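User: Good morning. I'm curious how adenosine-5'-triphosphate would be positioned relative to this chain. Could you predict the structure with it bound?
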Amino acid sequence: MLIAVKNLTKVYGKGPLAVRALDVESLEIKEGEMAAVTGPSGCGKTTLLNLIGALDGPTGGEIFFKGERISGRGETALCRFRREKVGFVFQAYHLIPSLSALKNVLVPAVPLGGGRVRRARELLRLVGLAGKESRRPGELSGGEQQRVAVARALLLDPELILADEPTGNLDSAAGAEIMELLKSLNRRGKTVIVATHDRRVAESCGRVIRLADGRVVS
Ligand SMILES: Nc1ncnc2c1ncn2[C@@H]1O[C@H](COP(=O)(O)OP(=O)(O)OP(=O)(O)O)[C@@H](O)[C@H]1O
Ligand SMILES: [Mg+2]
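Assistant: Good morning! Here's the predicted structure, ligand included:
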């Protein structure tokens, strides 16, 4: 089991403004799975991914990664967990506009003292961007920018890829290509979790986890 979630809750805000965004009794993701988290806007997809990736902490409950509890650890340990174990891909790419594609891919190595240029070039080739290493994000299409973001997510060779609406800003052809890319990474052994409100994107994954009002409904 790569991820196990027990009685996980997330409440945003306090008092009368409190929103119970997530309430998941039990959820397990196996190593090598490709899972979609789907459901209508506001059902808690982003919240669940952010908790699994330790970008945010839960209000209650526990998250285990390979049997080790990650919820409740200190910020230094969480930072290390995020950097070493998880690659993140976001809807809006979150690239640095002033940096080349290559330098964007290298960003995760900055806190480690740099290096890894050869690997970054290999990854850009893997995602189909050979020859475009020196382009800035503004000189790339949306689909190409998302490929840079996928290459960046792979730089430190994480076991888990979390992609939150990775096709949300793309037309259907570019979106399908990004999904193909994520599937090829899954075939190479990465565990992939994709949050999407798009039914077709969800159904192209090996497993579909449906949320409604913060709960897993199927
Ligand atoms: N920082 C926050 N403060 C307060 N409420 C929040 C916050 N983030 C999310 N929420 C609320 O929590 C619930 C779940 O939000 P979340 O972003 O996880 O949904 P989602 O399924 O990702 O939606 P979408 O498909 O629109 O991205 C929603 O009711 C949302 O309004
Ligand atoms: Mg969301």
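The longest strand covers residues 19-29. The pocket of adenosine-5'-triphosphate (ligand 1) is lined by residues 12-13, 19, 21, 41-47, 197 (CB under 6 Å).
Let me know if you'd like a different ligand tried.
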